[in-house]
Specification:
31% of the residues lie in helices and 18% in strands. The chain is of the alpha/beta class and 274 residues long.
């Protein structure tokens, strides 16, 4: 069986209960994770060790990339990051290297998986190609070291096939790991974190863009806890706010089967905390 799971954010106990609830067996089942494996929750180290040892397949989220930046010394960990134990672990480098090998997008069982979203101009095939382009940088130790100090930032807000260098890579990072709302001409809004009804003027949720080139491709994503669960034949939104005291959600996606399983989570962060 193939199980897609939303944002873990270091909530290892909830992940353990969810795996028990679905009867997960590493020898039989596959685990697909929609990013933000670490950060904010109480047990990022245990979570990362568990998913690595289970052979999980993940896509990278913004908190995973933040961990890489902090570990490389380009940013100080903030109190709400809750990654100090991970950074001090004896197997820290092995875990960081495992994380760096994960892509920004995957496709399995007919589902395209990303952490946050796709820009309107991207087809499914282009998305996978752009994921590989950025992933090649993050997998290569020297290229990663060169890019991480310049990765953070909001510009450029609009994709252009002609983008090059740091601007191109940063735009990819923001689309894959931070996107919620886009304007009609494809510009990202990276500030608004409320639900779909709070779209800034002239913007809409990325998956509702009328000219989205990825229409027809089933897409699964996390990142947007205020959106809540979306369970449609062509769209799965699975960040249901575990770290905020909501649920951790899994969706079975193999052999044409659809099943949603949830477990309630202990609140590790107060809603509204940065």
């Amino acid at each position: 069986m193939d199980w897609l799971v939303g944002d873990l954010q270091g909530c290892d106990a909830a992940l353990g209960r969810l795996l028990d609830a679905v009867g997960f067996s590493p020898s039989r089942d596959r685990l697909w994770l929609l990013g933000d494996l670490v950060g904010r929750g109480p047990a990022s180290l245990a979570t990362l060790r568990r998913v690595r040892d289970l052979g999980a397949q993940a896509v990278l989220g913004n908190h995973d990339l933040n961990l890489m930046v902090v570990a490389a010394g380009h940013r100080k960990a903030q109190p709400n990051d809750k990654i100090d134990t991970l950074l001090a672990a004896p197997d820290r480098e092995e875990l960081l290297e495992w994380l760096a090998q994960q892509p920004l997008a995957r496709r399995a069982q007919g589902w395209l998986m990303v952490h946050a979203g796709l820009l309107p101009a991207w087809t499914a095939e282009q998305t996978l190609g752009l994921s590989e382009e950025l992933g090649a940088v993050l997998r290569d130790p020297q290229a990663r070291a060169d890019f991480l100090p310049r990765m953070m930032g909001n510009q450029p807000l609009r994709w252009d096939d002609g983008l090059r260098g740091t601007d191109r890579l940063r735009c990819l990072v923001n689309a894959f790991t931070r996107l919620r709302f886009v304007s009609d001409d494809g510009a990202m809004d990276l500030a608004t974190k409320e639900g779909a009804g709070a779209a800034p003027e002239g913007h809409r949720p990325w998956f509702e863009h009328p000219q989205r080139a990825s229409h027809g491709q089933a897409i699964a994503f996390g990142h947007w806890s205020t959106l809540g669960l979306i369970d449609r034949p062509d769209l799965l939104a699975l960040d249901t706010g575990c770290v905020w005291g909501g649920c951790l959600t899994a969706a079975r996606i193999d052999d044409g089967r659809r099943e949603i399983v949830q477990v309630h989570c202990e609140q590790a962060m107060a809603p509204g905390a940065v």
